[in-house]
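JOB MANIFEST
job_type = single_chain_structure
chain_count = 1
residues = 415
[input]
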Amino acid sequence: MDYLNAFWVGGLICALVQILLDRTKLMPGRVMVMLVCSGAVLGFLGIYEPFRDFAGAGAGVPLLGFGNTLYQGIRKAVDEDGFLGLFMGGFTASAVGISAALIFSYLHVRKKSEKRYVLWIFLLLSLLPLIFTKLSVFVKELSVFSMLGISYVSFRAVQILVEIYDGHLTKLCPLDVSYFLLFFPSILSGPLDRYQRFSADLQKTGSPEDYEALLREGLWRLATGAIYNFVLGNLIWQYWVSCMPDTLLGTLGYMYGYTLFMFFNFAGYSRMAIGTAYLLGIEQPENFNQPFRSVDMKDFWSRWHISLSTFLRDYVYTRFCMAALRGKWFKERRTCSYLGYVLTMLVMGLWHGLTGAYLIYGAYHGLLMCANDILDTRCKKFKALKKDPRAGWWLRLLTLHLFSFGLLIFSGRLF
């Protein structure tokens, strides 16, 4: 009987969703938002629990269970920690609420004030949960603010605030903003999407053939991502990385193994996140594009964790350089670029954590980017080498080793 109830209740929910898609002008993304919100509302009203007892697994099809989980996380945190629970609620739901409130507050303030210091105040407030989470390494009392996926939620909020300041966003839908901030397939390890692109996916209506193509591609990415992550990544860690002795040769072997492990683990997760998003009608941006074919470090960062590197390029590097050039902070224009690279990569290191290994990792890549820029601008032979097919293979090998050494620093094995 339990299986029968789960079957017909889950089927009925799916049928109702299909009717909404077929007979109304609601976009697929907005229907998904409605389902998540409905789960949270049912939990708040005390209806979801008896409904789940009756329908079993059918009550969670699709996304109602996720919405209820968000509500239950917040309620439990508030019951245990009072007001602090608002910052600690399950699965960063409360952080999303705070970020959304800041975003809509700034949207209102921006219409009356274009002062940059106002933007900085809102940026700082939106980043406070992330800052507290990172500082919890040194101050244990701050560990109560630690939240799952807070890094990605914070950067998504920052992106919207900056776009509001620039005048690119003048109207926002509360449901769309909340769904963007809390989009669960990519909340743990990306990709880091942009609101305008995400919102466009929510609003578009595709043909049955389009959804069929997304379904095929999504399932393929889920399957291959699982092989990358759970099979290849785990095998490399278990039978290679974890077996390396603490010697010079062992550390060298660890470096190569750790590089492959990080690729299959991270790229695998990204493929699964993108695949899940495809099933929901959201075409998340690519995060990896054959990074080990890179001929230099600039090329590498356009292929590895693409969504984060482009975010940092647009919101840290470019804005720092523009401000420095307009304010004439330095005599040499290239100085702006070099300091911009170092600042950007240090931010990347800080984003991972405040330990020495992460900071050195960021500084290391900042220096590599500066060296790369010097070669590009002052060495004509370097440009010619990158175009030479034979020399290109040696440059790829060199780039791989430079990045692998960076990951060795990142792993903390050297310190």
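[summary]
Residues 208-239 form the longest helix (32 residues).
Residues 209 and 261 are 37 Å apart (CA to CA).
exit_status = 0
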